[in-house]
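ASSEMBLY PREDICTION REQUEST
Request ID: AP-0331
Submitted by: J.K., bench scientist
Number of chains: two
Total residues: 792
Priority: normal
Notes: Please return the full assembly, not individual chains.
Input sequences:
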Amino acid sequence: MKAREHKIYQEEPALPSLVPPWLAAVLSAIIPGLGQALGRALKRGVIIFASFVSIFGLLIWRFQIAAPRDTGVINIVLKAFKLQPVFIVIAIFFTLMYIWNIIDAYQVAKAAGKPEKRKPFLVFFLIILVFFLIGWQIGRIDLYGFVSQFDDSFPILSQILWPWEKAITYPTVEVIGTAQLESPCTDTPPEPEPREDKPYLVADPTCGFPTMEEVGKNEETGDWERVVTQGTDFHVEGYNFDPGREVEIWWRDSAGRPYIHRDLETDTNLKVIPDEDGYFETDLIWPFPIGDTVRTNMEGVAEWELQGIQISLIGTWEFSEEIELAVVLMIETIFIGMMATFFGVILSVPVSFLAARNLMNANAFTLGVYYAIRFILNIIRSIEPLIWAIMAIIIVGLGPFAGILALTVHSIAALGKLYSEAIESIDPGPIEAVQATGANWFQIVMYGVVPQIIPPFISFTIYRWDINIRMSTIIGIVGGGGIGYILVQWIRNWKYQEAGIAVWFIAITVAILDYVSAEIRERFV
Amino acid sequence: MLEIRNLTKIYDDGTLALDNVSFSVPDGEFLIVIGLSGSGKSTLLRCINRLIDPTEGEIIWNGVDLAKLKGEELRKVRRKIGIVFQHFNLVDRSTVMINILTGRLGYSRTWPTMLHRFSKNDREKAWQTLERMGIEDQAHKLARELSGGQQQRVGISRALMQDPELMLADEPVASLDPVLAHSILQHLEDLNQEDELTIICSLHYLDLVQRYGTSVIGLREGKLVYQGSKEDIQKMTDEEFKTIYGEEAVRISDTSLEGSVGEVIEL
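STATUS: Completed
Returned structure:
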């Protein structure tokens, strides 16, 4: 230990600079970092040089992208400055960095040979700052856009944040109250037909003419012109409708063609709202018929019907289809995570013993197995579950089984590592003590090993279960089953409230799980 | 009577831990092993109950060479040799009771013990031992919840459950403060005098050696460099102690402890 400290001290020899400070500055002006390297700060020189080269390369690339149609360095630079002012800031700090690199070379060369002098670090600060600015440009960071567009997207976001209007529905039924009309009037016009407890309309009068348009010759001018004859005025009363819910007035002409009554003054559909007794009254004009066909009965009378149509509630509220779908898929999601954890645990326990160094260092072969397993586990773990899901879908098709497979593979790798580390960190002391009592192999494992690995195993398992359920919520995005599938469907169909329901379900489930898993783990760690 | 003859241990990495060590321990002795860390004390103790296999030499105990035992026979002998460790070596996450009952594993049938089932006698014995050590109210706590002194008493209890004839103690007080050190060593002395247990104990402090030992051996770099009787120990000066032991020897001031020992034992 002492020898090592000594060695570390000797690695920083207080040698004087190879070049005078002014020359170091000049050299760094030509090749950034060269002056520092010759000034006995080789690593610093290399870092500065590498930073300049990569920043320069990145800048060439970004300037070209910013001004693709221009030729000539100056044109490109000026165009980029014009289009994206952030380039001006980058250029300023790049220049500052270059200048400071020269000053730094001078200072370093001057300080060389005097170990008590601390080397300046401002040049590194400038390098990091320039990288930050380039990152800002590459990342197309647009804080102004973020703030200004936030307003526009607020209605959608608020739908996601508060989607609960879509959570419940009211079952409805269409109720129709009618009154019969005829045209032209006969000696026995239709009588109103009052109905007990059912909606009906009473029209006054019950006969007349629809509005007509005719082309006739103006007697005075002799011109042909359109003449509109206004239809009969009605006073209509409605009875026994649902109080407070709007009623639409429809016509059904003699040929049975339905059309809604337009209020000509406002050019909107006529809607009336019944009072608390279910009564309303309104005045309307018999409108144009649609089409030319007039069907008459044997007396040559056209029979019309006036309808009051109301969407009426039956029964109380119930959960919407979306909520039911979200619940069903959330259950599926939780079980995907659970099954993946089960399989992961069962398969990773044996793997973890093979990946524990303290169990595998007996000879070269077992050590080889150890390294191979570790390597494979690291590769598997570095591939995201979403990618495993895509691969699983190729084999087993869309659906929850693909999700389970993907999460199982990832769990084996992750748990295998955690378990094997738990095995590696067991204390040999208790094992030795149990062995010393004359216990046999089974007893040593049961009393010396198991109590030490069970708590971390349980803790890691719960942790994994937590992660797996969280991951199973998004595994559906690629088709691996669970709520993620419907979530992405809803988002793509602009059904933001429905998507909001899914998001809420995921958030609530994950939050509960987070709490539960933390509570359980606390007892074992 | 335990007789060590020409005991040598070379570890796989080539370290010579014990170099041709020979000595004998009459029954009823409180033998203290002194020596620097790394001098071979722990290796010596662990060779006796074969937690470590010696490279060469004989360990004759009651006419049997322990160095040659294997399997079932070895386990049967191990039952009669209790051991107490510097770091207690309790299973932290098991209860005190389970830790103590572990001492009976060598006497119990395998499959019941897999379900933590022990005979009624064993359980009664466990309670008696706990009472003797003054920790009966800790029985259902987890071992890790206990203080250092209490943990070492659990360690001694576990060894006592084996009905040992020989008790090994590998620096049993090195992890404890001086006051607790006396308390634990007095438990061992009690076992030595009342139960006539043979005790082999490694220690670091001269005053503890003088206070408790009935004979002493000294190890340095795996070699036996000192053997002394009770009288020899009493006459030993700090300088002599240091020549055996090296510069790290420290004397715990007697005056600071003597008066308070009587009270602190009750802790």
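REVIEWER COMMENTS: The longest helix of chain B spans residues 178-194.
SIGN-OFF: pending second reviewer
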